[in-house]
Amino acid sequence: MLNRRLKTVSDYIVGDALVDIGSDHAYLPIYAVNEKIIKTAICGEIARGPYDSSVKNVQQNQLSDVIKIRLGDGLSVLRSMDDADTITICGMGGPLIASIIETGMKFVQGTPRFIVQANTYPYPIRKIMAEHNYKITDELQLKDGPHFYDIIVFDYAKKTVEYSEAELRFGPVNIEKREPVFIAQLEREKSHIEKILNGINDREKNIDKVVRLESNLKYVDEVLENVKDK
Fold this sequence. Notes:
With 230 residues, the protein is an alpha/beta fold. The protein has helices at 4-10, 27-34, 48-60, 94-104, 123-131, 165-170, 172-177, 180-198, 207-229; strands at 17-21, 40-45, 67-71, 86-93, 113-120, 134-144, 147-156.
């Protein structure tokens, strides 16, 4: 059974060939093949345990002829002859996803769509993808229990991609769409920062931390004011 986050990711897959990095039992590729969203997939796993689990799951679903499991570090599992219309990287922190893309983009042929699902801090993903001329074409936040998750879709742009600091932090499409989940996450972040600031007794001794937190709060307040006014 595909969880809500991966099901949402599957809605954005384009083309016949999927590459799924950190595949988690190959759930997404298996679902995408069975639902005829894609025809073939490559799953990349960095550790032997998840690799073996993915191999077993694909075999049990009798899909070994169309879903290939490879052991390797991030996008290095790709080979020059591989087709890739969509690349998915899901269920990790933002800094790790950004690192996988930064170190692995040299292995990517062509300009496939990227779909990422970040558990935390998507800022560095937006930044590194903009540096590679990838534009955010859609994004949303999902709330699962007490946690918020970011799903971001990137497509290659021929023109230079530039984002403001606020857009890198919160997402240009999120800011534009002003979805209730996004606003709720901003309000939670605002409350969290204010709680930390109120708990700092000696501001002079913690001036660097205070400055950083106040800067973060300023961005949150500006975006909140913007999205609520529209």
